[in-house]
Amino acid sequence: MTVTIGNNVIGGGNPAYVIAEIGLNHNGDVELAKKLIDVAAKAGANAVKFQKRTPEISTPEHMRDVPRETPWGTMTYLEYRYRVEFEREQYVEIGDYATLAGLDWFASPWDVPSVAFLEDLNVVAHKVASASLTDLELLEALRDTGKPIILSTGMSTIEQIDRALGVLGTDKVVLLHATSTYPMEPEEANLKVIATLRDRYAGVPVGYSGHERGLQISLAAVALGAVAVERHITLDRAMWGSDHAASLEPAGLEHLVRDIRVIEAALGDGVKRVFPGELAPMAKLRRVGA
Predict the structure, then answer these.
(1) Angle between helices 158-168 and 136-143 (to 10 degrees)
(2) Which class is domain 3-285?
(3) What's the chain look like in SS3?
(4) Rg of the chain on CA atoms, in Å
(5) Alpha carbons 31 and 233: distance in angstroms, whole number
(6) Sequential pLDDT tens for the chain (290 residues)
(7) Long-range interactions of 128-132: CB distance < 8 A, separation 24+
(8) What's the CA angle centered on 61, arms 59 and 67, to 5 degrees?
(9) How many CA atoms lie within 13 A of 232 on its CB side?
């Protein structure tokens, strides 16, 4: 089974769909968001992804008044959430900018009003963050849009994934294996789960969302059959903000996309054959013919 997002078909032997997650790494700055969109386009990514919250709904009660040190001074966690949130006019600007750069764009809505917000902007798909996989009210709202849905599965059990897919259905869903530690250590990657999900949910395309340092694990995921790869991106991992340290800088994203395409070419079709490039070495080196 395949899922179509924008002009891209995911699964069915098509090239891996590369999602550059900007998330909140724009730090509430439209111009920084545009620079990150440029990074994604230059690297050859297929899509950029943001996060959309209604802070008074999506911020857990116990976190709201926790003080946070920010570049704008000390503020509560709830105030910080408002400070980095884009409103409609800003999303129109960055959404148009991404579209003109040839990229799909969408976001992870963290609450039901954010689904309506994104639908009003006519996004091509929706992304469910791992933290939202158990929010059945949100999943129902996303299902009712009829749009393709990318579902990350970090911090989740198989039973919770079963329940989420019971709400969403499987016709327009792409699953992403993920481990929600930032940054993630290799011992927690558990990449064999990609095959586990593929076997359990036959026909549902399965990809990978990574929070590790470096490229090796994401590239291994593609070699294991991941049909989509999502990685956070930043201009500089040393920037202020919670996700920058687990993000790829511009050169890293360029290398990731380049190496994914090399791996896809190298995987071949599984049919054993003698390639033209082997004929000269065979004539030179093989003493006994067939």
Answers:
(1) 40
(2) alpha beta
(3) CCEEECCEEECCCCCCEEEEEEECCCCCCHHHHHHHHHHHHHHCCCEEEEEECCHHHHCCHHHCCCEEEECCEEEEHHHHHHHCCCCHHHHHHHHHHHHHCCCEEEEEECCHHHHHHHHHCCCCCEEECHHHCCCHHHHHHHHCCCCCEEEECCCCCHHHHHHHHHHHCCCCEEEEEECCCCCECHHHCCCCHHHHHHHHCCCCCEEEEECECCCHHHHHHHHCCCCEEEEEECCCCCCCCCCHHHCECHHHHHHHHHHHHHHHHHHCCCCCCCCHHHHHHHHHHCCCCC
(4) 21
(5) 15
(6) 899 999 999 999 999 999 999 988 888 889 999 999 999 999 999 999 999 999 888 888 899 999 988 888 999 989 888 888 899 999 999 999 999 999 999 999 999 999 999 999 999 999 999 999 999 999 999 999 999 999 999 999 999 999 999 999 999 999 999 999 988 999 999 999 999 999 999 999 999 999 999 999 999 999 999 999 999 999 987 776 677 778 999 999 999 999 999 999 999 999 999 999 999 999 999 999 87
(7) 128/152, 128/164, 129/51, 130/154, 130/155, 130/156, 130/178, 130/180, 130/209, 131/155, 131/180, 132/108
(8) 80
(9) 26
Four-point Cα dihedral 222, 224, 228, 229, nearest 10: -50
Structure tokens at 170: 């499987």
CA dist 206 and 11 (Å) reads 8
β-bridge partners, 20 = 48, 231
Peptide bond just before 71 cis, omega within 30 deg: no
Domain locations in the chain as residue ranges = 3-285
Tokens of 171: 């016709």
